[in-house]
């Protein structure tokens, strides 16, 4: 691990000072309903995150998911065969512990769950944090904004003043940045919750894809070639972005992870490389590494067979598994002064350190779709 030089602003402000992000909303007098969820940042430094053992709650779930799938009035509809299930008639905020375990299992199987007509955005940060912590220790972003008093809750905010286009993408022809959240961390991210407070009337959607389906579409020979390979994932480029330098709270790190990882619950393999954070295959020369990684990036990103697009509407909450999916925001919306906001919240539990099990055998017959639960009430 290599350290970046600490910005001088830390020394000037000290850990007791608080920075509010530059937005068009007045933090003190605004009548904006979700002003308490606007991003804050408290300068200071935290020690590096340490590896920990993780036992996924999906492992203790009923494989049939009877408590969740037979909830009165609940409707589950497959979005595509490879990824995504839409859920109606079921409130996440009302799920008991057993149903949350089954939710984790269902998210592992389907990758992305889209819940409609939810009260979750209005249950308050305490209950939101408690819900997310059921699935694992909550990650605190190395430089992202925080909800005041709740550093584990990550607001994702854009308006005309804060900028509809990040510094990371302003020099690119497209806003697409496929990635798995913070794949450079030692323990990867797990069952993740993401939802809007306010979104543009048009645009600002999120794209998701299945890295399990992308892996399965490869020939057996090519899959075997990838088994046992490891690649470096880096958080350094993210930390160097201009508007991030003054607010990161941990030293950026690089971590080595397997290119193919095994899901601890489903035992399925998926590709674990992404263009945003993966840098180089261990033990390969630069050109050799680039050849394989570029093929995998293009394969993952261009395979529409395993892609979906989520349009955000009030009350939509997405639960996705960071271990077998990637996603990208779309900053394609028109920004009108004092009118347009894209204000989201992410709750990001951490999971196990990525690993590859060459002997893992997924139970295809136990998959969600095979049980005929789709479209049931």
TrEMBL record:
Gene3D superfamilies: Clavaminate synthase-like. Residues 353-377 are annotated as: Disordered. Its cofactor is Fe(2+). This is TauD/TfdA-like domain-containing protein. GO terms for molecular function: 2-oxoglutarate-dependent dioxygenase activity; metal ion binding. Keywords: Dioxygenase, Iron, Metal-binding, Oxidoreductase. Residues 77-348 form the TauD/TfdA-like domain.
């Amino acid at each position: 691990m290599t350290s970046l030089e600490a910005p001088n602003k830390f020394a000037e402000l000290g850990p007791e000072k608080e920075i509010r992000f530059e937005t068009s909303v007045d933090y003190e007098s605004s009548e904006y309903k979700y002003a308490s969820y606007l991003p804050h940042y408290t300068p200071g430094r935290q020690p590096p995150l340490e590896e920990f053992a993780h036992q996924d709650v999906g492992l203790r779930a009923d494989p049939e998911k009877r408590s969740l799938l037979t909830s009165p009035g609940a409707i589950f509809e497959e979005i595509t065969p490879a990824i995504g299930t839409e859920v109606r008639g079921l409130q996440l905020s009302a799920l008991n512990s057993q149903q949350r375990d089954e939710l984790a299992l269902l998210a592992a199987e389907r990758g992305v769950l889209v819940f409609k007509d939810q009260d979750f955005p209005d249950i308050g940060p305490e209950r939101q944090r408690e819900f997310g912590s059921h699935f694992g220790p909550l990650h605190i972003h190395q430089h992202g904004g925080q909800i005041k008093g709740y550093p584990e809750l990550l607001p994702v905010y854009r308006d005309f003043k804060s900028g509809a286009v990040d510094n990371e993408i302003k020099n690119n022809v497209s806003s697409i940045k496929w990635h798995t959240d913070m794949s450079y961390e030692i323990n990867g991210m797990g069952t993740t919750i993401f939802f809007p407070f306010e979104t543009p009337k048009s645009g600002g959607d999120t794209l998701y894809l299945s890295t399990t389906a992308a892996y399965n579409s490869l020939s057996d020979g090519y899959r075997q070639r990838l088994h046992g390979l490891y690649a470096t994932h880096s958080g350094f480029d993210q930390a160097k972005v201009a508007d991030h330098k003054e607010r990161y709270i941990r030293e950026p790190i690089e971590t080595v992870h397997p290119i193919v990882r095994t899901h601890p619950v489903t035992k399925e393999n998926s590709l674990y490389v992404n263009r945003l954070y993966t840098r180089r295959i261990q033990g390969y020369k630069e050109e050799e590494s680039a050849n394989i990684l570029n093929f995998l990036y293009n394969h993952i990103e261009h395979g529409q067979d395993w892609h979906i697009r989520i349009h955000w509407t009030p009350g939509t909450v997405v639960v996705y598994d960071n271990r077998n999916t990637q996603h990208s925001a779309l900053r394609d919306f028109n920004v009108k002064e004092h009118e347009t906001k894209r204000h989201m919240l992410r709750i990001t539990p951490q999971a196990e350190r990525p690993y590859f099990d060459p002997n893992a055998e997924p139970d295809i017959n136990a998959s969600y779709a095979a049980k005929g639960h789709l479209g049931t009430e």
